[in-house]
Design a protein that fits this description.
Layout: E1 3-7, H1 11-22, E2 26-31, H2 34-42, E3 46-49, E4 66-69, H3 81-88, E5 98-104, H4 127-146, E6 150-155
Parallel strand pairs: 1-2, 1-4, 2-3, 4-5, 5-6
């Protein structure tokens, strides 16, 4: 049975968790609050509480799992310390099989209504888009060092 972790299991994350459960996967959600843990438990989704804003995170038991990462960067940072901290908590024994990072088409900047292909160079203009671009770069760097494939989905 494939292990799946949904990190940041809010509105979209919960739907992904349910879809993965329907496929027979063993799903665990990583959420920030006890209230979220409780809500997910009532919906038959196993949940673990962990605040990614903490300076030191516990080692996360995600060995050989597929991990969906939905957590947004903090609103007032220049980078994404949440994702960087999360990745650093994945030691050699807890590396996932794959990381799927949800980003934004905002990393392309204002394209003035033009069609955008993935080959278009990033040009994030808004602060939020710059934080997401930073997250993408951190994920790519981690992937290169760890050997874990990263899939980046840029959602409009």
């Amino acid at each position: 049975m494939t292990a799946v972790w949904v990190v940041g299991c809010g509105y979209v994350g919960e739907r992904v968790a349910r879809a993965e459960q329907a496929e027979g996967c063993d799903v665990t959600a990583l959420v920030r609050t006890a209230q979220s843990v409780s809500q997910l438990h009532t919906r038959n989704i196993r949940a673990v509480m962990c605040d990614l804003d903490q300076v030191s995170l516990p080692v996360l038991p995600m060995a050989d799992a597929v991990v969906y990462y939905f957590v947004p960067p903090p609103p007032h940072a220049a980078t994404d310390p949440r994702l960087r901290g999360f990745l650093s908590a994945l030691d050699n024994q807890s590396r996932p099989r794959r990381l799927i990072l949800i980003s934004t088409t905002g990393v392309y900047g204002n394209c003035h209504g033009e069609w955008v292909a993935e080959s278009r160079p990033a040009h994030p203009e808004a602060e939020r888009a710059r934080r997401r671009w930073d997250a993408e770069q951190a994920a790519r760097d981690w992937s290169e060092k760890s050997g874990v494939p990263v899939v980046i989905l840029r959602v409009p």
